Structure formats: C-alpha cells, structure tokens
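lol forgot to send this yesterday, sorry. struct tokens for the thing we talked abt
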C-alpha cells in the first residue's frame, strides 16, 4: 500500500468498493496543488487555534468541494479527534449556529434550549483536537458569534472557512494563514473535468472534440458550470447536431451580451425605469442605485469595471454563470421568453 505525503492513497493503491465510490464522487480535477496547500496549513505545528479561509467570489468555483475533500481526507481523519461541518446561511442567528454545530455531533437537538446546545458543544470539544469546516459564511458578525461558541485549548485545533467575500476572508485570517484564493480551472483541467463527467473513461469522439472544447471554453474555468453542461449532454446521443444545439443555446442573450462591459449610468437608468429602486433617506434615486450596485460588488455578485476620474464607477461586469441564472429566473417569472435559441421576447 502506497501513501503520498499526507497519507492519502495513491492512484495505484487497491481499495474497497466503498472507498472507490467515494473517491469518484469527490473528484477534484485541477485542485491537487490546492488540496496539498490546505493540508499543509491545517497540519502546521502551531499550537494556537488557527483559521484557514478559502476565498472565491464566484459561486460554483469549487470552494465547498475543496473543503469537503479536505474534511474527508484519511490523513485529516487520523490527525483530529473531532470533525464537524457547519453551513452558515446568510440570514444567520445564534441558535441556528448552535444547532448546526451540535447537529454535527449528535442528533435530535431541535427541542433543546440554547444553554443545552452550548453544553453539548462545550463538552464535545473540550480538551480535544478538532477541525471545524464553516461553509459559505457571509459576514464578519456571523464569524464573531461563531467564535463565542468555540473554545481554544491551544492543542492544534483548526477551523477551515469558505466565503465569497474577500473582506470576510481578510477579517478572519492572520499573517501566518492568509486567505487561500480559489482559482479557476485552466483549459486542460476544464476539458478533463468535462470529459470525465460526460464520458467517464472513454475518449471524446474525434468529430466532437473541437465543438466540445468551444462549449467548455464558454464557462471560463468554472467547475460547476462545466459539470452542469456535461450533465445536460450526458442524456443525449453523441451526435454533432445535439452538441451544436447546446452550443447555440449558450449564445442566446437578453439585455447585455456575454462578456461585455455594462455602463453603470445606463444600468441605473434601466433600474429606475423598471422601478427597482426605492427612495430612502431623502436620497436621489441615482445615489440609492449606486449604493445598491456597490452592495452587489461587495457581495462579489457583480464585478467592478472601469472608473471615472472622480473615482465613481463607469462600468461593471457580470459573470456568465450569474448571467445564466438571471436568464433562468427571468424566464421563470415570465419576464422574458427565449425562443429559437437567440430571439428574446419581453413580456
């Protein structure tokens, strides 16, 4: 039996059917270096409780997948007495946090009081070396509340945290453990992920390689998008016509085409015309709209573009995955109908 640096089995090591199934489900193509980086940080010899943040502004970039792979790693299981997985919703409260942490330890906690939940958490982690993964945290206030729940026994316990917000990652990190910025997949890894999810171990038919590569390139290295489109194609016959239809539907657009700089002034005028902006604090609607836009940028839902000489925003951009979500929601709400792949009717 062979093990790599961190004790995980090598690709040539025989394993049980259960182990093989888990490894297949948790494939993280293109993330091996990042996995080793996080494992190194978690197992450093620092006694003090350390927080390792994984930051990535895009949903679906693989933050949770990477954290899950770390959490389930056999080397990590052997190094920590207790492991827990906690997901913090955007509308968090202290009881929800307590329930999340306590439920990762024991079941049937809904009827317990906050004091009882706190006692469960306290006794479970007291004197033990633990790893807690806090997934998708949205605010520094949520982190402050979480800190009050946990204890530091200076026994090399660790917290692994994922967030889309850079200011949250900076807030929880220290000089020794700066935020790990989750990267997008490169072209080769994007293609490998696409073909593995679509074809398993088979090779892509030669007549589909060029078209398939073009489809994959549209998703700019975002793993979730690549997996989604592979899941769509896997239900179809391996015919060029089927793949061509998928490619053509990807190019449909409404309002602002893909990858374009969106003029902030024009966007604000459209928001006001559609009555999306509500007056507040006697401010002009344009000012309120700029505040809305800044909030979206702070949440990493919109990308800041060019600036004017006075420092105000001239343009912004939206990631393709979020754009597709907006199209889907618009269709669901009967705002638009996409027809024939490239014609859009506005209700």
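and heres what i got for the seq, position by position
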């Amino acid at each position: 039996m062979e093990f790599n640096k961190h004790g995980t089995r090598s690709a040539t090591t025989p394993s049980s059917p259960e182990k093989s199934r888990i490894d297949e489900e948790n494939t993280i193509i293109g993330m091996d270096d990042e996995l080793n980086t996080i494992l190194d940080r978690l197992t450093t010899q620092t006694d003090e409780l350390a927080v390792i943040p994984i930051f990535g502004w895009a949903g679906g970039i693989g933050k949770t997948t990477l954290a899950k792979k770390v959490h389930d790693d056999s080397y990590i299981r052997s190094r920590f007495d207790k492991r827990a997985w906690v997901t913090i919703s955007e509308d968090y409260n202290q009881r929800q946090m307590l329930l999340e942490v306590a439920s990762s330890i024991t079941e049937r906690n809904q009827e317990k009081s906050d004091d009882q939940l706190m006692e469960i958490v306290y006794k479970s982690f007291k004197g033990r070396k633990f790893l807690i993964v806090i997934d998708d945290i949205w605010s520094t206030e949520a982190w402050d509340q979480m800190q009050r729940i946990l204890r530091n026994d200076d026994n090399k316990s660790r917290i692994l945290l994922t967030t889309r917000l850079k200011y949250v990652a900076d807030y929880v990190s220290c000089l020794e453990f700066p935020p790990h910025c989750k990267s997008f997949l490169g072209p080769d890894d994007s293609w490998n992920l696409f073909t593995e999810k679509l074809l398993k171990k088979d090779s892509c038919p030669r007549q589909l390689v060029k078209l398939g590569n073009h489809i994959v390139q549209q998703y700019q290295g975002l793993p979730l998008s690549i997996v989604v489109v592979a899941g769509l194609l896997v239900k179809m016959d391996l015919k060029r016509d089927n793949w061509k239809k998928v490619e053509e539907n990807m190019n449909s657009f409404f309002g602002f085409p893909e990858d374009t700089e969106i003029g902030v002034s024009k966007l604000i005028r459209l928001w006001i015309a559609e009555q999306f902006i509500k007056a507040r604090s006697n401010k002009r609607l344009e000012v309120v709209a700029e505040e809305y836009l800044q909030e979206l940028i702070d949440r990493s839902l919109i990308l800041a573009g060019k600036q004017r000489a006075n420092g105000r925003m001239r343009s912004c951009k939206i990631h393709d995955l979020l754009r597709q979500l907006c199209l889907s929601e618009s269709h669901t709400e009967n705002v638009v109908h996409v027809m024939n792949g490239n014609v859009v009717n506005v209700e």
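Residues 17-181 form a domain with the Rossmann fold fold (CATH 3.40.50.300). anyway ping me if u want another try
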